[in-house]
Amino acid sequence: MRRARQLLVTLFTFLWPLVTSFGATPVQSSSSTSIFSPASTPAHTIFRFSLFVLAIIAAIFGTVFGLLVYAAVRFRMKADDDGREPPQIYGSNEIELAWTVLPVLIVFVLFVTAARVIHQIQDARRPPGAIEVTVVGHQFWWEFRYPQYGFVTANELHVPVSDPKHPTPTFLKLLSADTDHGFWVPRLAGKTDLIPNHPNQTWIEPHETGIYFGQCSQYCGVEHAKMLLRVYVQPRADFDRWVRTQQQADPPDVPMSTLAAEGRRVFLTAACINCHTIKGTVADGRFGPDLTHLMSRDTIASGAALNTPKNLRLWIQNPDEIKPGCLMPAMNLTAQQFDEVAAYLMTLH
Amino acid sequence: MVVGGVCRKRAGLKAGATLPAGPLRGRWYERKPMASDSMPLPQGIPLPQETRRTWLEIAHEWVTTVDHKKLGLMYIIYALIFLVIGGVEATIMRIQLLVPHEHFVSPEVFNRMFTMHGTTMIFFVAMPILFGFANYMVPIMIGARDMAFPRLNAFSFWMTAFGGLLLYFSFIGGNGLYGAGNAPDVGWWAYAPLTSPAFSVGHSTDFWTIALLVSGVGSIGTAINLIATIFSMRCRGMTLGKMPLFAWLNLVMAGLVLLAISPLTAAQAMLMIDRYLGGHFFDTQAGGSAAIWMHFFWIFGHPEVYVLILPAFAFVSEIVPVFSRKVIFGYPIMVGAAVAIAFISISVWAHHMFTIGMPSYANAFFVLSTMAIAVPTGIKIFNWLGTMWGGKIRYATPMLFCLGFLFQFLIAGLTGIMLGSAPFDWQLGNSYFVVAHFHYVIVGGILFATFGAFYYWYPKVTGRMLDERLGKVHFWLFLIGFQLTFDSLHIVGVLGMPRRIYTYEPGRGWEIWNIIASIGVVFQIVAMLCFALNLVRSYFKGKLAGNDPWDAWTLEWSTSSPPPAYNFAAIPEVRSRRPLWDIKHPEDPDWKYE
Questions:
Q1: I want to staple B412 with a disulfide (CB 3.0 to 4.6 A). Which of B288, B359, B441, B480 is the partner?
Q2: pLDDT tens across B393-447, in order?
Q3: Do residues A341 and A263 make contact, with C-beta atoms less than 8 angstroms apart?
Q4: Residues facing residue B431 across a β-bridge
C-alpha cells in the first residue's frame, strides 16, 4: 500500500510538467500575447503546425515515459532479493534497428511538414492590395514608415483588417538603426529580427480588429524590456481615416493657447528638434520618434506609459523616471517651460 | 541477442571487502602498494618521513600539483564556488521578476546578472565540473597513473581558473576611467553590434572577451590532454572497444571541444581587433556583419551543448548499469550514437538563428539536421532503458538522480523538437520557453546527472559515503524546486514573455507563473544547502566506504578509496569492459560474450 502511494507520488511528480506545459489554456484576456490564440494568417499557420508537432511529441512522450515508469517500478530490487545478478544482456541488433528506424521516420515526417510551413510563410506571395510598412528598430522604440502614404509614425502600428475575399496583408520590411531587435506580436506572426545591415521581411494578415500586443524579442540594450509594441487592427474605413490624419503636417497658424504657443517656441529653440520631427516646423530630427501626431497615440515611451498629460510632462522632465537608461535626456528646463512644452505637445493631434 | 550466463550469484562485496582471492592469486589487483611503485628510488637515499605539514605546505602542494586527481578536485571545487555565485545571480533575477514593475534591481544590474549568470554557468561551472570528473576518473578508469601531459593539465586548470577570476574582476575594474564596477551586460551570446565600442563603452565587454579567450585556452589544453591520455595511456588489454563508456564519451567530448572552442576563440580575437585595432568584422556601422558573429558564436554554442551533455551521458552510462545490476545494453551502438551526436552537432548551429531571416531553404536544412540529432540521442535513452529492463534496480541516491535525468532529459529533448521546427521556433524562440528548455537540458539533465556522479564517486574520492538520507532529501527538494521553476517558465514563454527583460507588463497572464517560478528557487536553495551540508559533514563523519561500496565493475573501484597518488600499485590488465565483473565472476566472465 505504501509502495503504491509512493508510486503515485512519483508518477504525479513526473507527469506534472506534461500537464502544466501543454494543458495550459491560453489566456483570452484582451491583452493576451499567447501564441496559442492566433488572429492572423501566419500565426494561424504556425499554430496548426504546432498542434501537429505537439501531437507527435505527446505520442513519443507517452510511450517513452510509460516504458521508463514501467521499467523503474517493475524492475526495482525486491526486499526479498536472493542476491543473484540478473541475466546479463549485452544488446540486440533487431531492437536497436527498430528504435533507430522509427525515429528516422518521425524525423522525416516532421521535416517535410516543417519545410512546407516554412515555404508557405517565408515565401508568401505579396498580393496587389498589400500594405507596405518599413519598421526601423531603434534603442528602444519602433519607427514605422508608410512609403505608400508618405508619413512616419512610431511605436503603434496601424494596419487594416484583412477581408478573406480581398486580402490586404501587411508586409513589413525590417531594418535596424543601431543594435539587433526582434519584431514579435505573438498573436499575429512569429518573430523576425531587425539586424543592422541585414534587411529582413515578415508579414501579417489579421482577421479580427483590435489591439495586439508585442515587444522587442532580441536583447538590444538597457531598456530592452520596455521596447513595447502595439498593433492596431482597424476596419478599412477607420484605417484610411487614420492615414489621412497622419499625412497632415503641423498647421503653423492654428489658434492655440498662449501656454502652448510659448511651448512651441521653447520646443523649436531647444535641443528637442535635434532628435524629433514635427512636420511643418523646423524640427526634423530623426533620432527619436516623429511627434507630428503624438496625441493620436495611446502611449508614449514605446508603450512604457499611457499618453496622459501627467505622464507626458514627467517624460519630458525626467525620462529615466519612466524608462531608466533610455536615450532621451532630461532637458533641464524650468518648471514653467515643462508645462509649456507639454501643453504644446498636447496640441499635436 | 547475446545473453550472459543466467542468474549468477552477486559477488556480494560489502564496504571494505577485498576482491576475491583464489585461483587468480598473483594478478595485478592482488599486489600490495609499495613505495617503489610510484617512483623507483636509488639505493641509499632515505625515504621521506611522514610528518604533519603546515597549512602553507599543503597549499603549496595543491598549487603546484600536477596530479590529475588533485587537479580534478580543484576543477570541481572551483566550479562549485562559481555555482553558488551563478545561483545568487539567478536568485536576484527571480526576485526582480517576482511581480511586474518591481524595482529590486535597476535594468543595468539585471542585464549584468543574466549575462554573468549565463557566462558563469556555462564556462565556469558546467565545463570545469565536467572536466574535473573527466580529469579525476578517466586515467583511473583506463588503468593509467596520470594524464598524458600532467603539466599541461595543471596549466589548463589554472588558465580556466584565471579566466573566471578575470570575468569577475570586471565587477571592480569593469568601467575603468568611466567609473569602476560594471560587469558585462551584453548577454552571454554577446550579439554584435551591442559589443562594438559604440554601444559597449568602457571595459566590461573586454573582460568578458578575454576571460573566455583565456579559459578557452585552458579548455583546449584539457581536451588535447584527454584525447592523448585516452589514445596512449590505456592499460594492457584495454582496446578502444573495451574502454568504459565513460572514457568513450569524454573522448568524444574532448574532440568536440577542439572543434567548438576554436571558432569561439577566433571570434573573440576578431572582436578585440574590432574594438581596439580598427577592424570591422562585426561593426555594422562600418559595414561589418552582425550575422557573422551569430554564426561564429553558435557554431561554438551548439556543439558546446553536447560538450556538456556528453559527460553527463558518461555519468549515466556508468551509474545506470551498476544500479540495475546489468551490463550496459548495446555498448557498440552507444559509442556509435555518441560519435554520431558529435558529428551531427556541428551542423545544427543555425537553429539558434531561425529568426534572423535566413532563406527558407537554409531554415529547412537546419530543421533537418536538428531533427536528425534526435535519432542518436533517442537511441541513447532507449539503451539506458534497455539496461534497466530486466535488471534489479537499487534506488540509491545516484540512481535516483539518474532517473530524474532520464525523465527530464526526455522532456528537454521533446521541447527541443518543438524548438527545432523552425516555424514553431518563430514563436517560441527567444521567449521564456527557450529559457525553460535549456534549463531542462542543463539543470534537469546535466546537473542531475552530475549530482548522481557526486553521490556515486564521492566514496572513491574521499573514502567516505555521502549520507543517503540527506541525499534523498536533496534529490526530492531539488526535483520539486526545479519542476516548479522551469515548468512555469515553459508556460510563460507560450504566453509570449520574451527572455532577458528586467520587468514586464501586468495583465498578460504572466504573473502567477513568475511567482511559482520564483517560489521554486526557494526549494532549490534549500536542496543545495542539504547538498553542501552533506558534502562537508560526510567528509568528516561519513560511513567508511571501502574500495568498492557499490559492487561496481570498472577499474577505479579496484584501487583504494581515496586512490593513492600513483592510482594502481601495479598497472592493471583487463580482458573485458567490466574487469571487476570478470574478477568477481571468474566462472562466467564478460570477455566470453563481447
A1: B441
A2: 999 999 999 999 999 999 999 999 999 999 999 999 999 999 999 999 999 999 9
A3: yes
A4: B498
A141-146/A131-138 β-pairing? antiparallel
Say yes or no: A61 and A177 in one domain.
yes
DSSP state of B183: -
Query: Which residues does chain B have within 8 Å of residue A100's beta carbon, measured at their own beta carbons?
Result: 375, 379
Give start and end residues of each alpha helix (H) in B16-126: 35-38, 55-64, 68-96, 107-119
What's the one-letter identity of residue A227?
M
Report the SS3 class of residue B9. strand
CB A137 within 8 Å of CB A176: yes
In the predicted structure, residue B527 carries a pLDDT above the cut 60: yes
The three cell numbers locating residue A274: 535635434
Q: If one looks up domain B72-592 in CATH, what number appears?
A: 1.20.210.10
pLDDT tens, position by position, B196-223: 988 988 888 999 999 999 999 999 999 9
Grid coordinates of B117: 549568470
Question: Minimal CA–CA distance to B337: which of B295, B307, B378, B390?
Answer: B378
* Apex A215 CA angle, A214 and A221, nearest 5: 175
User: Which secondary structure element, helix H or strand E, spans residue A132, and what is its range?
Assistant: strand A131-138
Q: What values do phi and psi take at B222, rounded to 5?
A: -65, -40
Question: Would the CA dihedral through B544, B548, B554, B555 be positive or negative?
Answer: positive
User: For chain A, how big is the Rg over CA atoms in Å?
Assistant: 28
| Residues in chain A within 8 Å Cβ distance of B500 | 219, 224-225
Q: Is residue A253 part of a domain?
A: no
Give CA–CA dist B243/A136, Å, rounded.
57
Q: Are strands A170-176 and A131-138 parallel, antiparallel or unpaired?
A: parallel
Across B84-93, b (16+ Cβ under 10 Å) vs e yields ebbbebbbbb
Of B7, B333, B480, the CB nearest to A87: B7
pLDDT reported for residue B302: 94
d(CA B127, CA B106): 30
The cell numbers describing B562, all together, are: 581515496
Contact status of A75 with chain B (Cβ, < 8 Å) = yes
Assess whether A200 and A272 both reside in one domain: no
Nearest residue to A243 via CA among A325, A181, A151: A151
- Residue B114 CA, chain-centre distance (Å), reads 20
**Distance, in angstroms, between A224 CA and closest chain B CA?**
6
- Of all residues in chain A, the one with the smallest CA distance to B195 is A179
Q: Where are the domains of chain B?
A: 72-592
Classify residue B391 by its DSSP letter: S
Helix B245-276 × helix B331-345 angle, to 10°:
10
- HEC states along B439-462? HHHHHHHHHHHHHHHHHHHHHHHH
Name the β-bridge partners of A154.
A143
CA–CA separation, B590 and A211 (whole Å): 69
Average pLDDT of the residues in A200-204? 96
Q: Name B474's Cβ contacts closer than 8 Å, sequence gap at least 6.
A: B397, B451, B527, B530, B531, B534
Show the cell assigned to A204. Answer: 501579417
The whole-angstrom separation of Cα A134 and Cα B91 is: 40
> Å from B500 to nearest chain A CA?
6
Q: Evaluate whether B170 touches B204 at the Cβ level (below 8 Å).
A: yes
* Nearest-by-CA chain B residue for A87: B6
By C-alpha distance, the chain A residue nearest B193 is A179
Residues A33, A67 share a domain: yes
Instruction: Pull the grid cell for residue A227.
Output: 521596447
- Rounded CA-CA distance B536/B182 in Å is 34
In a domain? residue A134: yes
Q: Which of A200, A215, A247 is the last residue of a domain?
A: A247
Q: State the DSSP H helix or E strand holding residue A23, giving kind and residue range, or none if neither.
A: helix A2-23
Task: Tell me what percent of the residues of chain A surpass a pLDDT of 90.
Answer: 82
* Cβ–Cβ gap A67/B330 under 8 Å: no
